Amino acid sequence: RTIHLEFLLLHNMSAVILLDLSSFKSSPSSFTIGLNFHELHLQKNCCAFRGFLEVPLKGIQYLYWNTEIYGRCGRFFEWGSNEEFASKGLESLGVHNGSALSPGTPSYFMVLHWADEEMQFLHPTQDLFKKHVEAFMRMEYVGKMHSYKPHIEWEQLSSCISWPLVKRLRPANSQWIQSDLLKEEKEHIENHYRGSSDLLSSRSTNKKSSIFTEVPKTICDASLTPMELTQLNFDKSILLRRLLSTEYDGETAELLGEYQYAFVSFLIGHCYDALQQWQSLLFLLSQSNDALKDSNMEGFWKQFILIVYHQLRVLPSDFMSDNLSSENFLFDSLCQFFDLIDLAPKEIGRQMTTLKQSCEKKFECTFELNDDDDFAPVYVVDEND
Question: How many other CB atoms are found less than 10 A from the CB of residue 300?
């Protein structure tokens, strides 16, 4: 649809992402570009594509690209984060459009240019940045850009992801997070998430993965009695509280943010490490019995349940039965979590029950623990008794 640039700038409604693909040498039909859940497959003359209009200014965004030759890479960013990659305001560039700009509230632009030798998008020089912005202001890119279409779930899927968290988790010395899924795993995701299924494997020694927090699976503490070790198999609350204290400075929102970061990096970025982190955190949280009853963590659990609800909404209905779910880790974790409904405070228990009903309807299965489960807790017997 037609967008009046002066109106957009005057009301500071959104930002613009400009892409320079003039150096792209691959097949014209092999380029995919995406922003959050808005994905475009450029089948003809992709070099003419100039980017996205009406990009939200609020919150964390995820930009990614995919080619048959180069694989998939993605990047979280935030407007106004003062990083060269992320954005520059028009006022800081000395670019003006008469009275269209509101004083002190510049619209942001991101400009990226494709470097074929490096096989990725790079920062432009200041002159190139200004050149593209001015061309946009002169309406030279009319008909060559797409209006971003907000996805109803994106804000819920990224609500706790903060910019400091992104900077802590992103790969060292790299702007882009590189996919590390095997080809068959990618094909599964692509078949469900709007992509092609002919990607090449990019699992390699030089992959650029996020630096996730190590999630403990047990405690090496000689002071723990056999009974306490046994209890730890049933209840991971000690592990959860230690993780919050040692890695997140007691900030539960930071843990939830990493949980969301891992999910988005897996779902959209196709990162296997992110799938493993999502799995580890869900496994820990789904078995923290005592913490679930902690009145000081009531807000945390309410937010966690809401996050899980929105994550499950965007998964395919056959995710429970697919090899990618690592022998039904999601099913096992949810069964463990729903088994705690009777132990939870009344309001949290109601939320858990609603979540369980939603899961059973979507995935068409019953989430009940099996006493004969091979993954049942291991008992430790005190030989001194």
Answer: 19
- DSSP letter, residue 342: G
CA distance to 121, 146, 262, per residue, from 169 (Å)? 20, 30, 10
| pLDDT surpasses 80 at 70 | no
- What is the DSSP track for 143-203? TSEEE----TTHHHHSTT--HHHHHHHSPTT-SSEEP---HHHHHHHHHHTT--S-PPP--
Cβ atoms of 283 and 329 within 8 Å: the answer is: yes
Give residue-wise pLDDT tens across range 188-233: 444 544 332 232 233 333 445 678 999 987 766 666 667 766 676 7
Radius of gyration of the chain, Cα coordinates, nearest whole angstrom: 23
Q: Is 1 helix (H, G, I), strand (E, B) or coil?
A: coil
Give me the residue label for tokens 């091979």. 374
- Hey, how many other C-beta atoms are within 10 angstroms of the C-beta on 298? 15
For residue 264, CA distances in Å to 28, 154, 212, 257, 333 come to 28, 9, 13, 11, 19
Task: Express each pLDDT in 310-329 by its tens digit.
Answer: 999 999 888 876 554 445 78
